[in-house]
UniProtKB/TrEMBL annotation, chain A:
The keyword Transcription regulation applies. Residues 124-224 bind DNA. The modification 4-aspartylphosphate is found at D51. GO terms for biological process: regulation of DNA-templated transcription. It comes from Marinoscillum furvescens DSM 4134. It holds the Pfam family Response_reg. Residues 124-224 form the OmpR/PhoB-type domain. It comes from the Bacteria. This is DNA-binding response OmpR family regulator. Residues 2-116 form the Response regulatory domain.
From TrEMBL, chain B:
Gene3D superfamilies: 1.10.287.130, Histidine kinase-like ATPase, C-terminal domain. Its EC number is 2.7.13.3. It catalyses: ATP + protein L-histidine = ADP + protein N-phospho-L-histidine. This is histidine kinase. Keywords: Kinase, Membrane, Phosphoprotein, Transferase, Transmembrane, Transmembrane helix. Residues 216-404 form the Histidine kinase domain. The chain crosses the membrane at residues 7-27, 139-158. GO terms for molecular function: phosphorelay sensor kinase activity. GO terms for cellular component: plasma membrane. The keyword Ribonucleoprotein does not apply.
Length: 225, 420
């Protein structure tokens, strides 16, 4: 997977690159409009993560030009403006998703993977991990061919964990992924804990191993024993 | 009162004074002229009497209608014509009327006569009567004509003013369409148009500068926060971290998240203040409230709060969809946050209002403090303290009334959109 990050803050793009490299992405950075256009002409990308505020131009114009010249490239908008207009306009122009700054890198990772899966849907919507299969098309999780009876939120939580394997997911990051802005941080940690507890119970009942490891005081990590 | 009516009334007032003075002048002029004419007339009659006496001298006193000829001693000297007023019984009216009298002594063919001629004069009352009625009629005519004409003129003269007014009324600070003010030949209206043009341009500039500033401020704040959070996330991935070190990182991330949420809330408040959410439409509150309650159902259940919902069907109000959603979300959040496990939460939606009540360990809160920024209860150090300020701002923007009360251990927040 080849990704172009168009972002003028080099520290931010360095974070993204360093996080995504571990996921096996080939990640390149353009820090202004002009450079982004040059790179788009010179190389082939699967995905562009696009900041809307660029020093030498408007990200929305770049989005328009990408959708015109390279319609196969998926675009994820990253913006700190958090202006509703921009979000709607971006999605109308053909962007695949919109992520407001500041975001958790795990969230970015999950979103990119979701976009990627939507793009490459070829009958296989599953994420397989040992004895567990997660199907994004019909929201099913199977453990040894037993379908788990999960609530919507439990499914979303499990998907988030599976998409960010071998990474520490903080309780904040999970809470924000599940409830967005509505959630009050003080309560949310208990809720995350309860959901994890239920999830573990349901997986264990179906005979699955517990791959969800608690990182004390911080969050959880999905990995092999 | 319309300007044109004011001007017309002022004009009528001034002209009534002019008409009064004019009446006096007319009266003076008329009576002077009439007196002159009468004297002239009496003198002419005197001449014809003299001619008559020249042909047929009178030997004794002759009394005719309004004429007395008295032969005099031939020694009596001639006199000038003397006019005087006198009272004579009017033959037909049978009452005394004032007359103008001419007395003269003249010699005709050697005989001396004293001639007295008199005639009915036009009385003062009659002149006043005539002048008054003439003035009154003219004044009434002037009044009617000037009123009619002023209405007619105002339609044409004030037309550019009216269209300027309606152009200003339709002016929107956010749209970029230039407002076309109609040209006018009246210098006052030209000045007004120029002034309005400048005002509108300035308002738009200020607005867009402010909007840009708050957007940029938000961007400049969120970017470093984003960087710091990312670095911490990467740090957390590094090998060989101890649990206590992980906890430190997590604590720092937590604080950064709060900071960034605070920034978002403040910029949201600014945006509402800047009227960036002014697209109003009919919003189905029944559907919106039901949807938002569903969103929060899980949290309510997790916190073991007893939920009671009473949503009336078909409640529609005029407002901004995004803001109304935020309004209910903030109210719900507030009711859950200050609640306790095993407490109650009740949502009532009626045609005129929505009321959300909740149990809480907190005591009665001062209403004025409740909606202030950064005023928060002691229980939740994590809350931003901006939720109810946002609620209040949204209510102000929609001209809703928001009330807080406490009854039967329930804290009730009511938002009314119809004045009851």
């Amino acid at each position: 997977m080849k990704l172009l990050v168009v972002e003028d803050h080099d520290q931010l793009s360095a974070n993204i690159r360093s996080y995504l490299n571990q996921e096996g992405y080939v990640c390149e950075v353009a820090d202004n409009y002009q450079q982004a256009v040059e790179k788009l002409y010179a190389y082939e990308y699967d995905l562009v993560a696009l900041d809307l505020m660029l020093p030498d131009g408007n990200g929305l114009d770049l989005l328009r030009s990408i959708k015109e010249n390279w319609p196969d490239i998926c675009v994820l908008i990253i913006s700190a403006k958090n202006a509703l207009d921009d979000k709607l306009q971006g999605l109308n122009l053909g962007a695949d998703d919109y992520l407001a700054k500041p975001f958790h890198l795990a969230e970015l990772n999950a979103r990119l993977k979701a976009i990627f899966r939507r793009k490459n849907q070829q009958g296989n919507d599953g994420i397989v991990f040992e004895e567990i299969t997660l199907n994004t098309a019909n929201f099913e999780v199977k453990v040894h061919d037993t379908i788990l009876d999960l609530t919507r939120k439990e499914f979303e939580l499990f998907q988030y964990l599976m998409l960010n394997q071998n990474r520490v997911l903080t309780k904040q990051s999970i809470a924000e992924h599940l409830w967005g802005d509505y959630m009050d941080t003080a309560d949310s940690f208990d809720f995350v804990y309860q959901h994890i507890k239920n999830l573990r119970k349901k997986i264990a009942e179906a005979g699955g191993s517990d791959y969800i490891h608690t990182v004390y005081g911080v969050g959880y990590k999905f990995k092999k024993q | 009162m319309k300007l044109i009516i004011k001007i017309t009334l002022l004009f009528v007032l001034i002209s009534s004074v002019v008409f009064l003075i004019g009446g006096v002048i007319t009266y003076e002029a008329m009576s002077l002229e009439i007196e002159k004419e009468e004297k002239f007339f009496l003198e002419e009659r005197m001449e014809s009497v003299l001619r008559y006496l020249g042909r047929r001298p009178a030997k004794e006193r002759v009394v005719r209608d309004k004429l007395i000829i008295q032969p005099m001693d031939s020694l009596t000297a001639e006199t000038d014509v003397v006019f005087s007023d006198t009272l004579v019984t009017h033959a037909m009216l049978q009452r005394m009327e004032s007359h103008l009298k001419l007395d003269v002594i003249r010699k005709v063919n050697g005989r001396t006569y004293k001639i007295t001629i008199y005639d009915l004069i036009v009385e003062e009352d009659d002149i006043i009567e005539a002048v008054r009625s003439a003035m009154l009629k003219t004044f009434l005519l002037l009044l009617i004509v000037s009123l009619l004409l002023s209405f007619l003129a105002s339609y044409f003269v004030f037309r550019p003013f009216q269209s300027t007014l309606s152009a200003i009324r339709s002016f929107s600070i956010k749209s970029s369409d230039t407002v076309k003010l109609p040209p006018s030949t009246t210098s006052e209206f030209k000045k007004l148009n120029q002034f309005a043009d400048e005002m509108m341009a300035k308002a738009r500039n200020d607005y867009s500068a402010l909007k840009e500033f708050s957007e940029n401020a938000s961007h400049e704040l969120q970017t470093p926060l984003s960087i710091a959070r990312g670095k911490l996330e990467l740090l957390m991935e590094s090998e060989g971290l101890r649990e206590d070190q992980m906890e430190l990182i997590s604590g720092a991330q937590h604080a950064l998240t709060r900071l960034s949420k605070l920034g978002n809330s403040l910029s949201l408040l600014t945006k509402i203040e800047n009227q960036e959410f002014s697209d109003f439409e009919q919003v189905d509150m029944t559907a919106l409230a039901s949807r938002m309650i569903d969103e929060f159902k899980e949290l309510i259940k997790l916190k073991e709060i007893e939920l009671e919902v009473d949503v009336s069907p078909g409640v529609n109000i005029n407002g901004n969809q995004t803001l109304l959603e935020l309004l209910i979300a903030n109210l719900m959040n507030n009711a859950i946050r200050h609640n306790y496990s095993g407490g109650k939460l009740k949502v009532v939606l009626e045609n005129a209002f929505i009321a959300i009540s909740n149990t809480s360990h907190s005591q009665q809160v001062n209403t004025s403090e409740l909606f202030e920024r950064f005023k928060k209860g002691t229980e939740n150090p994590d809350s931003s303290g901006l939720g109810l300020s946002i609620v209040k701002k949204i209510c102000e923007q929609h001209q809703f009334r928001v009330d807080y009360s406490i009854s039967q251990e329930q804290h009730v927040l009511t938002v009314c959109w119809e004045s009851v």
